Amino acid sequence: MFYEDIRIGESTNLGSTTFTRAAIVGYARDFDPRVLARERGGEILAASGLHVAAAAMRRLIETRKAMRAALAARGESLPDLGVSPGFREMRWPNPVHEGDVVAFTMKTVSKRETSKPLWGLVAHTIRGFNQRSEEVLGFSGVAFVARRTGQM
Fold first, then answer.
1. Total number of domains in the chain
2. Which domain holds residue 127?
3. Going by C-beta distance under 8 Å and a sequence separation of 6 or more, which residues neighbour residue 36?
C-alpha cells in the first residue's frame, strides 16, 4: 500500500496465533529461560512477552506479504518497503497462557508528509486480544511508507 492509500482510523486484521506449550517452551529455550523454570515446576505456562510481540510482528509481515501479492496479481506497481524508526509504549496487560489464541489488529492513528519526497510517515497501534477478549499486547509504532507521488 502506498502512503496515499492509507486512511487514518483504518484497522487491519493481522490474523491470529495459537500459543501451544511446545511453542512457548521452544521460544523460551532460545530466548527466555525464565519460562523454562516455570515449565519444570509443572505450572500452566505463560508466554514471554517478547514471544507475544514477535508473533504480532510475524502476523504483520505475513499480512503485508499477502497484500503485496494481491497487488502484483492485479498488475499494480509495488511500493518500496520502508523502515521503522521504532515503537513505544509496549505493554502486556494480561498474560498469554498455553492454549490461548491471540488475534492481532493494526490501526492507523496518524500520518504526515516528511522532508523526503519519496516517503510519508505513518503511525499505528498494534493490539492483541485472547479468545476471552482480554487485551494481551499493545504498542505504538511508526513506519516510513513509500509515496505514489514520489515515484520516479
1. 1
2. 3-146
3. 25, 28, 29
